[in-house]
Design brief:
- The chain has a single domain, classed as Flavin prenyltransferase-like (Rossmann fold, 3-Layer(aba) Sandwich).
- It is globular.
- The two termini are 32 Å apart.
- A 6-stranded parallel beta sheet has the order 3-2-1-4-5-6, sandwiched between helices. It has a two-stranded antiparallel ribbon with strand order 7-8.
- A hairpin with a 5-residue loop joins strand 7 and strand 8.
- It has 210 residues and is of the alpha/beta class.
- The structure holds flavin mononucleotide.
Amino acid sequence: MRAERFRVATRNGGMNNRGNVVLGVTGSIAAHRAVDLCSLLVKSGCQVRVVLTADAQRFVTPVPFRTLSRNPVVTDLYDAAEGWQPTHIQWADEADLLLVAPATAHTLARLAHGLADDALTCVALALPPDKPVLVAPAMNGKMWFHPATQANVDLLRRRGVEFLGPDSGLLACGYEGIGRLWPIEQIAARVLERLGTGPAGAGSCGLPAG
Ligand SMILES: Cc1cc2nc3c(=O)[nH]c(=O)nc-3n(C[C@H](O)[C@H](O)[C@H](O)COP(=O)(O)O)c2cc1C
């Protein structure tokens, strides 16, 4: 019943619903990569609903996410995407998994401390406790290794949140080291595994080729 409220992708393959994913995108320089991540998840048969934080919208717009996910995009807690119910409650109720990618240091702190000051953090708090929460951090290495961030990561891990990355390499801020967003193909593959639907289906990692 809950899956029915997600729009079913019927064109370009009409794949079965492998799970309802809420994709939270935060204000990282890596936010543009969430567009391709959204597309990968949709091509893999997931129903994807995207929530952008206010700062994410400094880096990306809702348009590609709306088009690729074939669903409304929430950019504000007071958006009424569908129906009468507060959107963050409806989307949380209907989600099979919450993925935050990229996740900033700021949003990790908000998630760790239970803040509920925007649509993404409200979805996270309203999510049924048995639903997986995956986060893929992306930030400068000093931000990642700061004791405040590490304490937030510990707290979230102890609460069952799964961290994907961060990866190492050349960072957009000019530094080299840890802090890069995990490869989006690996993020998508892990999402499918956690949904219990990968790696069956298409190419390696359960992802569609191309
Ligand atoms: C150009 C630029 C790039 C940034 N990239 C990152 C980043 O990759 N990771 C991060 O944690 N913060 C980054 N920030 C800082 C965040 O945008 C800032 O902490 C913001 O409050 C995050 O808000 P949100 O988590 O609600 O989206 C960046 C800021 C700027 C101006």
